[in-house]
Amino acid sequence: MLGLEGPCWVGLGPDGGLAVSKEFGDVWLFGSARQPLCSLGDLTGHHFGSPAGVCTDAAGSVIVADEQRHQVTLFPWARAPICLVSEGLRWPLGVACAPQGQLMVADAEDGYIKVYQSYLEFA
Fold it and tell me: Which InterPro entries does this UniProt record tie to the protein (predicted)?
């Protein structure tokens, strides 16, 4: 995949594709053949500060850590974005989710991996 300007973080996207965050930009989704599909900002109208870590949950929703806005947001298909966590985050960089519903956020400011037991109740 050539021609990406400022790729920052990459994670698995929905349906075997990729999700790529761009520093001070947006998050782009690519299909399984690595073709560009859309940006989450254009698709949902969401304004990112500085998107960092990205992952996809078992339902195919994309989860993004935004280091500038100090929050983690869920982007479910065909629904508005949902802020999962904002309180207590200082510099969220990495994000991962487990099939049982746990959300893990790497907070670089305080050096902790913060584990939230069930983000699925917000979805």
Answer: 6-blade_b-propeller_TolB-like, NHL_repeat, TRIM-NHL_E3_ligases
